[in-house]
Design a protein that fits this description.
Structural class: alpha+beta
Largest sheet: 10 strands, mixed
Number of strands: 10
Radius of gyration: 22 Å
CATH architecture of the largest domain: Sandwich
Number of domains: 2
Number of helices: 3
Helix content: 10-25%
CATH topology of the largest domain: Immunoglobulin-like
C-alpha cells in the first residue's frame, strides 16, 4: 500500500475551499442544535441505564378499584437498586426517585434537554407536559445518576 501523496491533500483542501465560498453562512439555530447535541454526546456513558419495568398503558389487567379512574399513565424504571416512578397526565409529569435523595431531573428529547427540575429530599419531582415523541429522564443525586430508557410519554 502506497502512502497518500501530500499534493493530493493540498488539492482536496483547495477544492473544499472553492466549494465553501459559494455557500451561505450556517443559520444560528442549526449551530445551536449542533452544540446541544454535542453536549449530550457522552451523557449515557456517565449514567446507569434504568430499564422500563412497568407501563400501565401495556398492562392487560388494570388495577381496577384500587386506582383512580383517570387518564394517568404510570411507568416504572429500574437500574439496580434505583427506581424511577413516573405518572403522566395531560397536565404534566410527577415522579419519585428511590432511594429518596435530593437532586435534579432533566427531561430530554432528540433535540436536547427541554426541562430541568429539582428533586426534593423525599425524591419527588414534577414537570410540565412532555412533548410528543421519545423522552428520556436523567436523574442526578449526590449518590447516583441514572437515565431512563427512551419512551414516548404522550
Amino acid at each position: 500500500m502506497q502512502p497518500w501523496p501530500p499534493a493530493a491533500d493540498d488539492a482536496l483542501l483547495a477544492e473544499l475551499r472553492a466549494a465553501r465560498q459559494g455557500c451561505d453562512p450556517v443559520p444560528e439555530e442549526f449551530l445551536a442544535a449542533a452544540r446541544a447535541a454535542f453536549g449530550w454526546r457522552s451523557v449515557d456513558a456517565e449514567l446507569a441505564l434504568a430499564e422500563l419495568t412497568f407501563d400501565s398503558a401495556c398492562d392487560p389487567e388494570p388495577a381496577g378499584l384500587t386506582r383512580s379512574t383517570g387518564s394517568a399513565r404510570t411507568l416504572t424504571f429500574r437500574a439496580g437498586a434505583v427506581v424511577v416512578e413516573v405518572e403522566v397526565t395531560p397536565s404534566g409529569v410527577v415522579g419519585q426517585l428511590s432511594p429518596a435523595r435530593g437532586g435534579r431531573v432533566t427531561a430530554r428529547t432528540s433535540a436536547g434537554p427541554y426541562e430541568e427540575v429539582p428533586v426534593d429530599a423525599v425524591g419527588y419531582f414534577s414537570m410540565t407536559a412532555p412533548p410528543a415523541g421519545p423522552v428520556q429522564l436523567c436523574a442526578r443525586t449526590t449518590e447516583y445518576a441514572v437515565a431512563t430508557a427512551w419512551v414516548s410519554l404522550r
